[in-house]
Amino acid sequence: MLFRFNPLNLYNFDLICILGLYAFGLIGFVFSILSVFLDKRKSKKNPYQSFVAYMGMILVFTGIVFRLMHWPFQLLFLLGGLVLIVISYFIKKEKPNSKNDLLDDQLMDEQ
Predict the structure, then answer these.
(1) Burial readout 22-41 (b: 16 or more C-beta within 10 A, e: otherwise)
(2) Which of 3, 36, 49, 77 is the most buried (most CB within 10 A)?
(3) Considering the domain boundaries, does residue 4 fall inside one?
(4) pLDDT attached to residue 49
(5) What is the number of structural domains in the chain?
(6) Residue 108 lies in a domain
């Protein structure tokens, strides 16, 4: 695509490459969102906070693309994304009920 090399002699090879690039980007985004909710190592983090932050980042990047292409509504996308990112910082995870460990209970009984 960079050098206009068309190995299969397809009519719309550029369009196929661009759609393939979009498809891989969309698949990566979907897997990234799924990893927020399904990854056991990220269980300490709030998945809803991460999801809102991802949506904000997508809106910011969409606003940047709209700005580069001189399309309308770029400011709405940029501001909406930034507002979502700020909102994501205020989403708190519920604190789990902390049960005392066995050793702590034994120490408290001895005193």
Answers:
(1) eeeeeeeeeeebeebeeeee
(2) 77
(3) no
(4) 87
(5) 1
(6) no
